[in-house]
Amino acid sequence: MTTLIIVDKNGTLKTSSIKEYKEEDLFKKCGFKKADGFNKDTEWKLKIDGTTYIVKLYGKTTGRANSENKYDFPPPSDNTLFFGSCLLVGFQKNETTPCDLSLELWEKMYEKLFGGFEDLASTQAEDDAEVDELANVDAKFKTKDGYLKDGFVVDDNEDSSANTEEGDVSFSTGDEEATTEYETEDVDELLDNVLSELDEDEYDYSDEEGMDIELNV
């Protein structure tokens, strides 16, 4: 008896066994009534624990709608659309005599064919062991949420508008009008200029200039 793996269309795996290996009869293990369209799609060759294996994938690439196989096969079959159940057959010494292919062995093959998977548990342990770079930073240099004040991150209650020196033009955001700030000496000088211009513009409406004012009552 030789163990094979059947991949159901819903993506689940289960083992089955055969007494005698006949490639032309493999379609029956997947529940198909006819062998039409049931062919070998891919053949993987890889080494696991020092032993070289060959795994053949059989299935149909044509079928009825809603009967698509949902299993994620390794490349190059990752872009192939299969219909109904598929079959995985393992070989060890040659391609004519199959060997037992257990779910545990296929899991190792599956991981290797995908290039290995990241161990989330070990990754989490590494993240937990990382040192907090801001742990030794004085609280006055951090916001209330624990972020570093670097000019981009500030507290909500901090004034985000730029501080201006006397004599500079400053603009506030929102609907407020732009304002101009001047030093006190500049204002006094402006007032003196305005008063002197008014003195120069005075007019004398005396009779000496020949201007008669006639009132009509």
Task: Give an overview of the whole structure.
The protein is built from three helices and eight strands, in the order E-E-E-E-E-E-H-H-E-E-H. With 217 residues, it is an alpha+beta fold. It has two domains: 2-113, no CATH class; 136-202, no CATH class.
Short summary:
The protein is of the alpha+beta class and 217 residues long. Helices cover 18% and strands 22% of the residues.
**Rg:** 44 Å
Q: Give me the secondary-structure category.
A: alpha+beta
Report the strand count: 8
The helicity comes to 10-25%
Nearest-integer average pLDDT: 76
Main sheet summary: 6 strands, antiparallel
Number of domains: 2
Q: What is the overall silhouette?
A: elongated
The topology string of helices and strands comes to EEEEEEHHEEH
Ranges where pLDDT stays below 50 over 5 or more residues in a row are 160-180, 213-217
Separate helix tally = 3
> What percentage of amino acids are in beta strands?
15-25%
Distance between the termini: 137 Å
